[in-house]
Write a structure and sequence with these properties.
This protein is mostly beta strands. The protein contains 3 helices and 12 strands; from the N terminus they run ββαβββαβαββββββ. Strands 3-4-5-2-1-6 form a 6-stranded antiparallel β-sheet. A 6-stranded mixed β-sheet has the order 10-9-8-7-12-11, with no helix packed on it. The model has no long low-confidence stretch (mean pLDDT 92).
């Protein structure tokens, strides 16, 4: 089951004296998080906050409605911020990382199960899937030649592994 409210960053400090906070974004970029006008301070959507944000280097600066002093802002340090998945329309073939974690990873030809997708690592050139099985960790590049299908609804990823990714690869 997909989570409705996705953890998207952490308040890591204050900015200035008028209540702005600095958020370390856990999204594609600080600009992605800055595009939201409503964030949440809980994973259930009960603590809704109205915000005005802007990207600044590798963080998002955020002015929260009703937080007007550095002291008010300081009390929010360490809090996780969430977005509502309904507030963003993803392009075809683009997924939230949180929806990929836990998917079963299989061979697209044989159906052999290679393990469970445990993380998505950002390397610059392309993402890399971290796959775990029986205490071992495997890394697979997220490129068209390797990743053949992602089916979040049915819970799997199909791969054509490159030689050497898995111990028994030909």
């Amino acid at each position: 089951m997909k989570k409705q409210f996705l953890d998207s960053g952490k308040i890591v400090g204050t900015h200035g004296i008028k209540g702005e906070v600095r958020i370390e974004p856990w999204a594609d970029s600080p600009a992605f998080l800055a595009a939201f006008r409503t964030l949440y301070l809980d994973g259930r959507g009960e603590q809704k906050i109205k915000v005005k944000s802007r990207p600044h280097k590798n963080i998002t600066l955020c002015k929260i409605e009703g937080v007007d002093t550095i002291e008010d802002a300081e009390r929010l340090r360490g809090k996780i911020v969430y977005i509502n998945r309904d507030d963003i329309a993803l392009e075809e073939g683009v997924h939230f990382v949180q929806d990929l974690i836990g998917l079963e990873v299989r061979d697209c030809t044989t159906g052999e199960v290679y393990g469970t997708l445990s993380d998505v690592l950002r390397t610059g050139a392309n993402d890399v899937y971290e796959i775990k099985k029986d205490g071992k960790t495997y890394l697979a590049p997220v490129i068209d030649e390797v990743v053949r299908e992602i089916n979040v609804e049915e819970g799997y990823v199909l791969l054509t592994p490159m030689k050497g990714i898995f111990d028994d690869a030909d």
